UniProtKB/TrEMBL annotation:
<keyword id="KW-0547">Nucleotide-binding</keyword>
<feature type="domain" description="Nitrogenase/oxidoreductase component 1">
    <location>
        <begin position="49"/>
        <end position="500"/>
    </location>
</feature>
<dbReference type="InterPro" id="IPR000318">
    <property type="entry name" value="Nase_comp1_CS"/>
</dbReference>
<protein>
    <recommendedName>
        <fullName>Nitrogenase protein alpha chain</fullName>
        <ecNumber>1.18.6.1</ecNumber>
    </recommendedName>
</protein>
<dbReference type="GO" id="GO:0016163">
    <property type="term" value="F:nitrogenase activity"/>
</dbReference>
<keyword id="KW-0479">Metal-binding</keyword>
<feature type="coiled-coil region">
    <location>
        <begin position="402"/>
        <end position="429"/>
    </location>
</feature>
<keyword id="KW-0411">Iron-sulfur</keyword>
<keyword id="KW-0408">Iron</keyword>
<keyword id="KW-0560">Oxidoreductase</keyword>
<dbReference type="InterPro" id="IPR010143">
    <property type="entry name" value="Nase_comp1_asu"/>
</dbReference>
<keyword id="KW-0067">ATP-binding</keyword>
<dbReference type="InterPro" id="IPR000510">
    <property type="entry name" value="Nase/OxRdtase_comp1"/>
</dbReference>
<keyword id="KW-0175">Coiled coil</keyword>
<dbReference type="GO" id="GO:0051536">
    <property type="term" value="F:iron-sulfur cluster binding"/>
</dbReference>
<comment type="similarity">
    <text>Belongs to the NifD/NifK/NifE/NifN family.</text>
</comment>
<dbReference type="GO" id="GO:0046872">
    <property type="term" value="F:metal ion binding"/>
</dbReference>
Length: 528
């Protein structure tokens, strides 16, 4: 029996039928997988809610917008404390990222309505912080009681003469990624991108789908600036409303996380003519390939030469450290389970250290993230789409610019492997490795027993089960408060953190007291 079948085997017929399509052992270059469907009630998985994706992931890193969570305090705290939104104020700009603003709704507000409390919160925020932009994010109870957030946003916008934008991201509308990101991104492209004129001074790019966890976006910007680019906007790591507004003036969009933002790249192409390419700044080979392909896109000899110089200098700086960690990690095995892109990207960084991936999967990815964009026309399922406004965008004549014609792009596609394309995770995995969509807690434990990986990369909800099972667990969402892991310096940080974990296997040395002796022995009174 295959490993996948032996894990499925313990399920009842009904669960078996549901989960079977979500798990596969790779025999071909790509295989069809069931993805982006609602989880069966009763299975305990790792997915976050729509609000977590909208406020926590996409809007959260926007430094110059003051974000008010309209809801109970736990939602605001969760999406602030566990995310690692890092941001530095621009010269003379505002930075609210270190703060957590919430209306802290109580039972009486749920009964009598929360709008007055929201008005008061906005007034207090304006008086203390003087923001130019306020975002209001909805939570589950707000949707249930029917507070009219667009009306609150409109009247406060008029009252204070600032932008107040509401986001209808009630948690129950779906999962973090498919519903939450989409709601945030749609409003960003509809209301912000393209609203300010700007003339870039050099070859200009936006970085799409990069959230600056652990400072990744800073490392990427450092490298791109050294190569000679102007980075206009990052969506949304270390991002700012001021920069989103002028993002349409960039010559190229480079996508780090395809899952969370590919539809924005496509809409920007239609509205503003901006070409996009899938890049990847996690892992040395990927970073180098992305930099070379970007230079190829611009086809400027000075840029190409400078790119090669940056690559050579950066590699020289890290080569000793990389060799050390490679010696320590070569031959080890890993499993990865994260949201919708990191399980692919980090396999390639692990390969830089000689670590082999046995299992990888996603919480929120769609089939194209596993199998490549060529399957998009065949995708039928889209669990959360009914809760998302579908934007119909059109060419905006006076803001449209063509940096490369369609013919030139077609030519370039021969040299740039993922120009306006993404080939998915499966193609980069070895035959025989396992792919699991929406892995749940039972499956996590079963696969650990079957595969015995040396390390398991995932998130906070499963970290401690894995760690207490004696396996090295590293969080790829938050980097366990380390990072950056992107680019050249990031690769070294990653190698160091994984090596430290591998060579201090403290959880392996402990035996649960109840496995050795009764914890109550000698402690129940009386003399020993
Ligand atoms: Fe993209 Fe993300 Fe991810 Fe994602 Fe996420 Fe994330 Fe992630 Mo947590 S946008 S898909 S829904 S890279 S929040 S910054 S770490 S699960 S792999
Ligand atoms: C989310 C956000 C999350 C959760 C992290 C985790 C993040 O989608 O709910 O489970 O460890 O990266 O903060 O993915």
């Amino acid at each position: 029996m295959s490993k996948v079948d032996s894990v499925l085997d313990k399920y009842s017929a009904k669960v078996y039928k549901n989960r079977k399509g979500h798990m596969l052992e790779l025999e071909e270059e790509t295989q069809e997988i069931a993805a982006n469907s609602r989880t069966m009630p009763g299975l305990i998985n790792h997915r976050g809610c729509c609000y977590a994706g909208c406020k926590g992931v996409v809007l959260g890193p926007t430094k110059d917008a003051l974000i008010i969570t309209h809801g109970p305090i736990g939602c605001g705290f969760y999406s602030w404390g566990t995310r690692r939104n890092k941001a530095k104020a621009e010269d003379g700009g505002q930075n609210y990222v270190p703060y957590c603003f919430s209306t802290d709704l109580q039972e009486s507000d749920i009964v009598f309505g929360g709008e007055k409390k929201l008005d008061a919160a906005i007034e207090e925020a304006v008086n203390i912080f003087h923001p130019k932009t306020i975002f209001i994010c909805a939570t589950c109870p707000v949707g249930l009681i029917g507070d009219d957030l667009p009306a609150v946003a409109k009247r406060n916008s008029e009252k204070y003469g600032i932008d107040v934008i509401s986001f209808p991201c009630e948690g129950y509308k779906g999962v973090s990624q498919s519903a939450g990101h989409h709601i945030a991104n749609n409003i960003i492209i509809r209301d912000l991108i393209g609203t300010v004129d700007y003339k870039p001074t050099k070859h200009s790019v936006n970085i799409l789908g990069e959230y600056n966890i652990g400072g990744d976006a800073w490392e990427i910007k450092r490298i791109l600036t050294l190569c000679g680019y102007e980075v206009i906007a990052t969506f949304t790591g270390d991002g700012s409303v001021d920069n989103y507004r002028k993002a349409h003036t960039a010559d190229l969009n480079v996508i780090q996380c395809h899952r969370s933002i590919n539809y924005i790249a496509e809409m920007m192409k239609i509205q503003y003519g901006t070409a996009w390419m899938k890049g990847d700044f996690i892992g040395l080979d990927n970073t180098i390939e992305t930099l070379r392909e970007m230079a190829k896109f611009f086809d400027d000899p000075v840029l190409i030469q400078q790119t090669e110089k940056v690559i050579a200098d950066e590699l020289a700086n890290i080569s000793d450290d990389m060799s050390l960690y490679r010696t320590k990690l070569r031959g080890k095995t890993a499993a990865l389970f994260v949201g919708g892109s990191r399980s692919h990207h980090y396999q390639l960084l692990l390969k830089d250290f000689g670590v082999k991936t046995l299992l990888a999967g996603y919480e929120f990815a769609h089939r194209d993230d596993y199998e490549g964009r060529e399957v998009i026309p065949n995708i039928v399922e889209d669990a959360d789409l009914k809760n998302i406004e579908v934007l119909n965008v059109e060419k905006i004549e006076d803001k449209y610019k063509v940096y490369k014609t369609e013919e030139e792009l077609e030519e370039l596609k021969k040299e740039i492997s993922e120009l306006e394309d993404y080939k998915g995770m499966e193609r980069d995995m070895d035959k025989g490795s396992i792919v699991v969509d929406d892995l749940n807690h039972y499956e996590t434990e079963e696969f650990i027993k079957k595969l015995k990986p040396d390390m398991f990369f995932s998130g906070i909800k499963d970290k401690f089960v894995i760690q207490k099972g004696g396996i090295l667990s590293r969080q790829l969402h938050s980097y366990d408060y380390s990072g950056p892991y992107a680019g050249f310096k990031g690769a070294v940080n990653f190698g160091r953190d994984v090596t430290m974990g591998m060579y201090t296997p403290v959880w392996n040395y402990t035996v649960a007291p109840w496995k050795k002796e009764s914890v109550l022995e000698g402690k129940l009174g009386g003399e020993d």
